[in-house]
Design brief:
7-stranded parallel β-sheet, SDR_fam, Short chain dehydrogenase, NAD(P)-bd_dom_sf, alpha/beta, oxidoreductase activity, acting on the CH-OH group of donors, NAD or NADP as acceptor, SDR_enzymes
């Protein structure tokens, strides 16, 4: 029996993690979300399994996370095997660069703060809060869902000037993983960051023709970086690939503290 704590499971990749992991009745899956009622209804309608627990908890709220830990601890006798930090913010500012964002310095600063608060600080709070349960678990795996956009090499190869705040916050997340690894590797905890590829999650919420054109321009950069890129992956395909890597990776196998593509090789897409 394995226990999983996953954030950001209301849709996309996170929801697919819950779907695939709950297929094994011996797994217990805890999904942390901001709107419990809505996600419980969705899970009941689209998955309908009893080994799924949806918990109200925003990762940027340490007190909410403490309550989540208490709930999970009661259900698992104080131990969990896996934590996946999947919750993320990627706003429409991802479609433009610093040249556009700099027209409103205060808005730019707030955009950066918002992304770091969710994508970096939220994950740090999550890992710190659940680490006592991880240390008592069997698998002892702490996973951050990152992005190839965080890699300077990818940025420079195709001059990808978009997704400034998102990319920077994910790069900081990768460093956080390295720091957690340095702290807990000797205790048998695997900490690693994984890029799931470009996944169709609807996070950009494209509504206008101009936004569609900007999105296509960004996808054009992706194809320049990786000529085989044919568009975003389906969440189910990405989730399957990420979970295969999570199950394969070990502390002593060269995975500790690293940032890798779900395919274990570049390009990330």
């Amino acid at each position: 029996m394995s226990s999983w704590v996953i954030t950001g499971v209301s849709r996309g990749l996170g929801f697919e993690f819950v779907r695939q992991l709950s297929e094994n009745p011996s797994n217990t899956v805890f999904g942390l979300v901001r709107d419990k009622a809505a996600v419980e209804s969705k899970v009941a309608a689209e998955i309908g399994r009893k080994n799924i627990h949806i918990i109200q908890a925003d990762t940027t709220d340490p007190m909410a996370l403490e309550k989540a830990v208490q709930y999970v601890s009661e259900k698992t006798n104080g131990a969990i095997d896996y934590v996946i930090a999947n919750a993320a913010l990627q706003s429409k500012t991802a479609l433009v660069g610093f040249d556009t964002l700099s027209r409103d310095p205060k808005a730019l600063e707030q955009d950066m703060i918002d992304h770091f608060r969710v994508n970096t600080i939220g994950a740090v709070h999550l890992f710190n809060t659940f680490m006592p349960l991880i240390l008592k678990g069997r698998a002892k795996k702490v996973i951050a869902i990152s992005s190839g956009m965080s890699d300077p090499e990818m940025t420079l190869k195709a001059d990808i000037w978009q997704a400034t705040s998102y990319a920077m916050s994910k790069a900081a997340l990768n460093m956080a993983i390295a720091k957690f690894c340095a702290l807990y590797r000797e205790k048998g905890v695997l900490c690693m960051a994984i890029c799931p590829g470009a996944v169709d999650t609807g996070s950009l919420n494209i509504e206008t023709e101009e936004e569609g054109q900007l999105a296509m321009a960004m996808f054009g950069k992706f194809k320049q970086y990786s000529p085989t890129f044919q568009g975003p992956m389906k969440p189910e395909d990405s989730a399957k690939s990420v979970l295969a890597l999570v199950n394969k990776a070990t502390v002593d196998g060269g995975y500790a503290g690293v940032f890798l593509s779900h395919t274990e090789s570049k390009p990330y897409l």
